[in-house]
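Please review this one:
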Amino acid sequence: MADLAPPIPPVALPPLNNIINLPPQPQNPPVDRDVVVGYHYNKDIVVAHADGLVDDHHFAESFTYQLNLVQAQAGAAAAPPWFHVAMQQALDPINQRLDRLTVLTAQAARLSAVSYNLQAASGTTRHFEIVPFRDGSYPTSGEHNLPPLLTSGTITALTPQQSRDYYRGYYGGGNLPAADHRLELIRTAIGCKHP
């Protein structure tokens, strides 16, 4: 791939001051020696300013010059402007695959938990596994903070709000069935065969 980054403009020298010799034109991009020379130039200007030999403008320009050198050198080591876009384009297909794998993993976790729960009867001897919601999130996570459905009895003990939240997590929006029917649908969603 060709380097699409525009050339880095050279660091301009500070204005002539008739007291302190200007440093030589730095390389483009500046190398370590250029930064050191800029530092010494700035140090000389600070002394001259303290002695009243240069004005505030030259004093400020010497700091600007030194900072421009440091910034240009650091910028040369940083990623070029096109890099982020190129990386994003290269990573998009990978991110799409990862998103698909995340969905498939959530579906597998859901099917695995439901299959286990179908064999656990009412969950009193062997507690139910927690079945993720349709979006892959877990009902007991901080996002939902619902009680775990470990037995058929814990489903029966759900408050009306908790049963609404469970129902919406497993079946989505739409019309909300009556409370008794909603609990039966929650049992079906997690693989509980016994009331």
